[in-house]
Structure formats: C-alpha cells, structure tokens
Amino acid sequence: MVTLIEFADRDLDKSPLVKLPDVFMPEAEIRTQRSVEKPEKPQLDDTPPPEVPQQAFDQIDGNATVGQLAAPQEVATNLDLSIGGGLSASDGEYLPIVKVAPRYPRAALSRGLEGEVVLEYTVTRSGTVRDPVVIESTNSVFNSSAIDSASRYKYKPRVENGEPIEVPGVRTRVVFRLQK
C-alpha cells in the first residue's frame, strides 16, 4: 500500500520505450509416430489330443487294497527337548532386542571430547530397563545421555520354568566416539 501511495505523487516516466521485435514462428506440422511391435500370433496345432481309454467300471473289485497306506502302529513320544544344564526348551537367558544409540552431548561435541560410560541396571520381566546407574565414567558430561539411552533399551527377558524373571546387575558400556 505504501508503494502505491508513493508512486501516486510522482510524474509518469515519458522516456521513449524500447520496442522488441515480434517473433514469428513458422507453422509446421508436428508429427509423432509411434511404432508398436505386436508379437506374432502363435500357430495353432490342429492335431486332436490322444484318446483316453475307457474304464471298465462293471469289473471293479470292492475288496482290493490298491494304494492303501498303513498307519504306524506305535509313535515314539519320549522326546527330550532339554538344552542341557537343567534348562527346558522354553527357558533362556535375557537377550537384547533394541539398543538405542545415545545422543552425543552438545557440550562434549563442541569441545571434541570422547568417552565411555559403564551402566548397571535391572532387566524387568517385561524386558524393559529399570534403575540405570553409572558405575564408571571417563567424563561426567556423558552420564545423562548414557542413562537416557539405556532407559529405552528393550530385552527378551530371562525365562526360568516357563516364567519371565527380573535380572538385576546387568552391565553395559556406552561408548562416545567422534567420527573422523
């Protein structure tokens, strides 16, 4: 709006205008050709199919045992599914499923610091992490980021006698390295 008001008070520019030449395009017919190759039609075989011999249904023996399979008389059911060490097939140790990478702390990144943090926590019956604690650290600037990362880990819980159990004292090392 300000620009309109500003130009309203000025005089019109009466300098000679530069005229551009007109551009004429010759009329040309544009043809597009599309070549489509059609596959050749396959040749049909005029020979009739072979004749199927007729079955003699009036001479069938109803007591014949052609193609009959005999079922096994006894099936072994004493399978041993133990893995060894007193564990059954459903028992197992806790296994990491998801380990979330830690965020590199901005303060450490700006100073070019690298380090490691050792954490200890409990893997719950549902496979989550509870109570992560810093056991060892090269620099305290990494502690918070390592704890945040570990609290988002997911595990397959330890199973004993078919029931998931908590595993206290699980340790992990979180390494902070700058890419070279």
Structure explained in plain terms:
By secondary structure, this protein is α+β, with helices and mostly antiparallel strands. It has a domain at 96-176: TolA/TonB C-terminal domain (2-Layer Sandwich), CATH 3.30.2420. 12% of the residues lie in helices and 23% in strands. The protein has three helices and seven strands. It has helices at residues 2-8, 106-111, 143-150, and strands at 95-98, 115-123, 129-137, 154-156, 158-160, 163-165, 167-176. A three-stranded antiparallel sheet has the order 3-2-7, covered by helices on one side. A two-stranded antiparallel sheet has the order 1-4. A two-stranded antiparallel sheet has the order 5-6. A hairpin with a 2-residue loop joins β5 (158-160) and β6 (163-165). The protein starts with a helix and ends with a strand. The model is unreliable at 67-72 and 75-89 (pLDDT under 50).
Query: Which homologous superfamily in CATH is the superfamily of the domain at 96-176?
Result: TonB
Secondary structure: number of strands: 7
Radius of gyration: 42 Å
Strand order of the largest sheet: 3-2-7
* Order of secondary-structure elements: HEHEEHEEEE
Task: Identify the overall geometry.
Answer: flat
* Arithmetic mean of pLDDT: 77
Indicate the CATH class of the domain at 96-176. Alpha Beta
- What percent strand? 15-25%
Number of helices, where a helix is a run of at least 4 consecutive DSSP H or I residues: 3
CATH topology of the domain at 96-176: TolA/TonB C-terminal domain
Please mark out the parts with pLDDT under 50 across 5 or more consecutive residues, or reply none. 67-72, 75-89
Q: How much helix, percentage-wise, in residues?
A: 10-25%
Distance between the termini: 55 Å
Largest sheet: 3 strands, antiparallel
CATH architectural group of the domain at 96-176: 2-Layer Sandwich
Question: What class would the helix/strand composition place it in?
Answer: alpha+beta
Keywords: Cell inner membrane, Cell membrane, Membrane, Protein transport, Transmembrane, Transmembrane helix, Transport
Family: Belongs to the TonB family.
Main location: membrane
Subcellular location: Cell inner membrane
